[in-house]
Every structure is written in structure tokens, then in C-alpha cells.
Amino acid sequence: MNRHRLLLPALAAVMLVACQRPPAGSDMPAKPANTATAAAPAASAAAPAPTTMKPATAFTPPPESAIPEGPFGDMVREGRELFVHTAQKAPAYVGNGLACANCHLDAGRQPNSAPLWGAYGMYPAYRSKNKHVNSFGERLQGCFQFSMNGKAPPLDSREMLALEAYAYWMATGAPIGVKLDGAGYPKQGFKPPQPPDYARGETVFQRDCALCHGSDGLGQKVAGRYVFPPLWGPDSFNWGAGMHELDNAAAFIKANMPLSRGNTLSDQDAWDVAMYMDAHERPQDPRFKGDLAQTRKDFHDTPMSLYGTTVNGHLLGSRPARRQGSR
Ligand code: HEC
Ligand code: HEC
């Protein structure tokens, strides 16, 4: 198709820029050139009780070129492949058109997009989402079930081992149990000046997002594979995913989108476009048992979730998106 010829060079250019330029406001290069070791000074400072507030701790993961030879390095590389080409490498566990790295940018290295190096040392951890202490493996399983709209690989599966090896390796030298600078999303204190608004969000979307994600938000494919991932619809994350919550989406978008131009949207624009994105239908929450109101009460009882509420005249979750001919 004609558009593909246009799209491929455009994508290459976009990716090149994205790889070379660190997001504005980030104090770390997106690709830490060849600096194998990096600033982790506060890591060696005496660790006070974990409940006290600590200054941010800087960390830079080792470069990919430092993945060792041999069986361990092979497993790390396998995990990286899985993280970047999830549907191709773990088809049994993926139910949409996304890859882990679509949301955890730069193959899980980019600060402020929930990088793997910022996550690994923070588990086991209690999660209010499922009300128990989760191992790191269970946290990965959650992203398969919700963000990837798929099935959780068993904890003792090869897929899980590979992903854990990759995350463990990327956290080489990071302190345990310390929230690192750039871990997770920059959500703290990130509030909309005015309540987010659907109509304003649509304007932002058409201006700043549609070029890549499509004016219908369904992403763009080349040769059957997404080069720009869908933001809603049957191939996107489902209603149980973290990205459907406004604060997660707004913080991710503010820090990382438009791709390679993170931190250029105003706070209001980021919240408005997050609301617009998350007010579209997507695959059903897998915990849904037939009653929308009950599912909202059980799992979405927060103003950050629009699931089970009416926006723009539509009751969200009442007509979830389905892939043609599946499920
Ligand atoms: C649609 C976007 C999306 C996709 C795709 C996705 N994730 Fe996530 N992931 C998130 C969000 C949102 C969070 C929560 C971040 C937060 O709360 O700060 C998260 C959290 C995580 C965490 C914990 C991060 C932390 O700092 O505690 C890990 C680990 C993780 N994801 C791994 C994966 C893996 C592995 C895959 C692929 C199988 C994947 N994710 C796919 C959006 C996504
Ligand atoms: C220059 C192209 C481009 C623009 C413009 C852009 N994005 Fe993206 N976006 C991408 C790409 C490519 C990815 C996947 C990144 C990867 O895999 O490395 C992505 C990922 C995402 C994701 C996570 C994956 C998913 O599909 O859910 C969200 C959410 C997102 N973008 C929202 C937005 C929003 C909102 C805007 C407008 C403010 C925007 N993007 C503008 C290219 C773009």
C-alpha cells in the first residue's frame, strides 16, 4: 500500500530522534552511551528506615553491550526480545497488538516510563489492586493479563524466567527497596489545573497524537504489524490495565508523548488527552462477571477510572471492543 512507503521512512526518522534525544526534563540519557557504571552515589549512603522520605537516588542501567556472553546473557537477551517483540515471542500469552516496550519505552530503559531497573528492586510489594503481597513475577503477570489483554505465563515458565533475567540484569548495581529517580511514572503531585475535559482532549489528540496513532486512535500497521500502537479499540490494553486510569495515562503522556518530545504538553493538555483516550471502548476487564456496576464497585471505585461511567453520552464498558473472530 502507498501509505506504507511514506510511513516507513517517517517511522525510522521518528525512532532515530527518539533514540538520540533524551526526553526534556530527564536527567539521564535515553541511551546511556558507553558508561557502564553510572551515578548511583546515594546508593551507598547509610540506609535509614524505609518509611522516611529520602532524596531521589539516581541510577543508570548498564548498556546493552554489557550483557555478558554465555547462558545467563543468552537468557537476558531472550527476555529483551520478549519485551520488545512480545506477540511474536510469546503469542500464547498476548491478546492484543501491543508489546511491553510500547509503554515501557526504550526496551524498558527509559526513565519515567516505568523502567525495569526502577521496578526490579521494589518487589515483593503489597498492591492494593489485588490486596496482597506480589512477587516481581506476579507483577509481570498482571501486565500480561491487563496491559497485553492476554494470559499470565506460569511463574515457572521460560517466558517469565527470561523477563526476570532481563529486569534483574538491567538493575545491576541498583539498591534494593529504594525508589530510584525516574522509576514508575512522575505521578507525585501531578494534578490537572482544571478537571480533565473530553472535548479539549479531542483537540489535543487531533493536533498532537493523530499523526502517529491515527485519527481514529487505532494505531497504524505496516505489513500486518503495528508501527504506531493503538490507544483504544480491540487491539489495545483492556479496561483492567493501569493505563486506563487517568493519573497513570496523564503522567505517562506528559513525560513521554508525543514520542521524542516528552514534557512539551502542558499539564492540562496531558490530562485532557488522557481523558479523551481513556473515554474510548477497549477490551473488557477480564474480572468482569456480567455486571458493569458491580465490576466498577469491585475494581474501579476511583475517580481515576471512567469505567462504568457515562462520558459523551456513552456508558463506558457497556460495549467493550472485541477482536474479530476471537474470544
Ligand atoms: C498499555 C501499556 C503497558 C503495556 C503494554 C505493558 N505495561 Fe507494564 N505497566 C504499565 C503501567 C501503566 C504500569 C504501572 C506504572 C505505575 O504505576 O507507575 C506498569 C507496571 C509494570 C511493572 C512494574 C513497574 C514498577 O515500577 O513497579 C512492570 C515490571 C511491568 N509493567 C512489566 C511489563 C511487561 C513485562 C509487559 C509486557 C508483558 C508490560 N509491562 C506491558 C503499562 C503497560
Ligand atoms: C511521532 C509519533 C507519535 C506521536 C506524535 C505520539 N505518539 Fe504515542 N507512541 C508512539 C510510539 C511509536 C509508541 C510506542 C513506543 C515504542 O514502542 O517505543 C507510542 C506509545 C504510546 C502509548 C502507549 C502504548 C499504547 O498504545 O497505549 C500511549 C498511551 C501514547 N503513545 C499516547 C500518545 C498521545 C496521547 C499522544 C499525543 C499527545 C501521542 N502518543 C503522540 C508514537 C507517537
Automatic annotation (TrEMBL):
Domain Cytochrome c residues, every copy: 74-171, 196-281
Native source species: Dyella ginsengisoli
Q: Which Gene3D superfamilies does the entry link to? A: Cytochrome c-like domain (1.10.760.10)
* Signal peptide per UniProt: 1-26
Is Hydrolase included in the keywords of this UniProt record? no
Using the UniProt annotation, give all residue ranges assigned to the region (Disordered). 26-64
Q: Does the keyword Heme apply?
A: yes
Query: What protein name applies here?
Result: C-type cytochrome
Composition bias, Low complexity: 29-59
State the UniProt keywords alphabetically: Heme, Iron, Metal-binding, Signal
